[in-house]
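Please, structure for the following, as tokens.
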Amino acid sequence: MKKKVVVGMSGGVDSSVAACLLKEQGYDVIGVTMQIWQEEDSCTIEENGGCCGLSAVEDARRVAWTLGIPYYVMNFRKEFQKNVIDYFVAEYLHGRTPNPCIACNRYVKWEALLERSLEIGADYIATGHYARISQLPNGRYTIRNSVTAAKDQTYALYNLTQFQLSKTLMPIGDYTKDEVRKIAEDRGLAVAKKKDSMEICFVPDNDYAGFIEREASGVPGCGNFVDKNGVILGKHKGITHYTVGQRKGLNLAMGHPVFVTGIRPETNEVVIGEGNDVFSDHLICRDVNWMAIDGLHGEEKEVLAKIRYSHKGSPCIIRELPDGTVECQFKEPQRAITPGQAVVFYEDECVVGGGTIL
């Protein structure tokens, strides 16, 4: 009997090709678009090519029709609001810089979609992520880098559980982006040349601070820029406008470039420092999700750590602290280690685990 797989279709070329490849491999494929963010007019949608709006539904439906597979739209607005938007706003208000895509992957795309897919009799869910899933000799599932470093998406997937990984297929991890577009073109898929969406889907204009002000009450307003000794340097627009490592948009006449080195929500202060103040050789992370291993068990481990999506990764030693957090000691200082972002640990192209930077 054919294995049934629900493919999360965003209306983009990657998920469309994922559905196509799985059908060709003999799976019983069902296409699903997750309706999570729908308050946009058609002009905004077309402009931004967001992954979850009305145009996504139209494009995904067209692809499903071309492939001859059933297609549904499932409403996940409630889960998205709670696990992504509310988290995003709360993190900024606490002076941290969140990663909403990681939260969306774990709690919406996997937890909610997988649960609903299993309920309708599916064996797997599948996505168009550039990553590969492997089961290691120790029996654990992990995510491996895709064949194309340019599009590798393993960083945003570090938080998936063993159960979720065991029920997931990622068919395009073995292809480059050019190859994926070629497959779409060869199969006559209308989205073959559709551009990738780059920004956060629910903030299409990239104005995070404006979004937070509309979404939350009691957003702190202007406050002081201070140096590390608390000396006032000027006025800032509100802590939600800034992130660690930021240089542009500070409007401080210091005569030389300065950077945000810290955010203090309790005093509504943004700390300013020099270029070398932005570098640090260690971090502590919480809420660690182990993937290739089930923990450190008191041992230290050398890994490659990525501190943001675009970071190349840097060698470090990780060790567990008594309170369950993990300390990461880099061999060389890293620029702009940002509270709220993820740190992801790699060994031999496999995700060892990761956590949220404290």
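Residues 42-49 have pLDDT under 50 and may be disordered. The CA atoms of residues 33 and 73 lie 5 Å apart.
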